Amino acid sequence: MSDTVPPEKLVGGLVKLLTVEKRATDVYQGRPQKGGTGRVFGGQVIAQALQAAQATVGGSGTDGKQAHSLHAYFLRGGKEGPPIEYRIERDFDGRSFANRRVVASQENEDGTSTPILNLTASFQAPEDGMEHEDAPMPDVPAPDDLRSDMEVRREIAEKAGDKLSEAQRNMMLRPRPIDMRTCDRLHWMNREPSEPRAHSWFRTVAPLPDDPQLHRAIISYASDYTLLGTSALPHGLSWMRGELVGASLDHALWFHRPARADEWLLYATQSPWSGSGRGMNLGRIFNQRGELVASVAQEGMMRKRKSK
Question: Which terms are listed as keywords in the entry (predicted)?
Fold first, then answer.
């Protein structure tokens, strides 16, 4: 966590960021967030779109319909400055399930609007059913036995000195509301080729309100961290060192059971394939009891940056 920004303020900022404002019937607006990169973080757009869709379903408590899956396509990179508009289509409302389509767009300087993401989400009312689970949690160090990635980033930045560009330094050191703790390697540095698997614990840096809808949104937000980089591991290349050009193309997430985003969750990722300028990545999210909380799939553009 940051030395200068209190954890409660970081998390409060995240909650505010993911609270969308109703502008008209089935139209919502999400706040922008500046991070120094010029582009909107994809997890932010996914989480805001999910929040907007959920607002049209109702039932923010434990008795109402809650998201059980979402599927999103990133169309263009969003800009940091302008707010994002979310327009909802109510495709289906049934007793057990509801379905929503969302188009996220930003206004251009000439007044026209450009879509940056479309998302479909499905919601289900609480229901008992047959249960099984065949997804053992990987054997990794406990989060309390690991250093936070933020602490490691500060150490690397201090040692690197002038070797880091201002953009790289800003990316490494900007305060984050999510405490990530890498289990096996700093795969965002990726100093040498390794197997396409990674494991990180994550949780918010301060407690959250007891709102299951918010916890799902923040898990959606965090699910876009570290995932795309998994497909770069076998190639020994790193975005942090400026060796890759990449962007998420699509993102799918399935919620299997309720979970709190302010309690430690393990994100286990793997990449079964890359080629044709794309990388395929899969993720599983576990709670500390070893229960499977969510599953994730994402394909991203991944190209080696050409030397100047």
Answer: Hydrolase, Lipid metabolism
User: Does the active-site annotation cover 224?
Assistant: yes
Q: Name the strand (E) or helix (H) holding 297.
A: strand 292-304
Query: Mind listing the pLDDT tens digit for each residue in 202-228?
Result: 999 999 999 999 999 999 999 999 999
According to the model, what pLDDT value does residue 137 have? 98
Which of 48, 66, 231, 298 is an active site residue?
298
pLDDT at 58: 75
Output the CA–CA distances (angstroms, integers) from residue 11 to 40, 223, 236, 262, 281, in the order listed.
18, 17, 33, 10, 28
Q: Can 298 be counted among the known catalytic residues?
A: yes
The structure's pTM equals: 0.94
Find out whether 197 and 233 touch, Cβ atoms under 8 Å.
yes
Pick the closest to residue 182 from 220, 212, 122, 141 (CA basis): 141
Percent of the chain with pLDDT over 90: 74
Q: Which of 265, 271, 301, 258 is nearest to 286 (CA)?
A: 265
Active site residue: 51, 224, 238, 262, which one?
A: 224
Count: domains in the chain = 1
Q: What CA–CA distance (Å, rounded) separates 66 from 123?
A: 5
Two structure tokens written together for 21: 């404002």
Residue 253: which CATH number?
Answer: 2.40.160.210
CA distance 159 to 172: 13
Instruction: Please check whether residue 220 lies inside any domain of the structure.
Output: yes
Q: Would you say residue 62 has pLDDT above 60? A: no
Among 54, 248, 270, 274, the active-site one is: 248
Domain-embedded: residue 101: yes
- Per-residue pLDDT tens digits for 189-201: 667 888 999 999 9
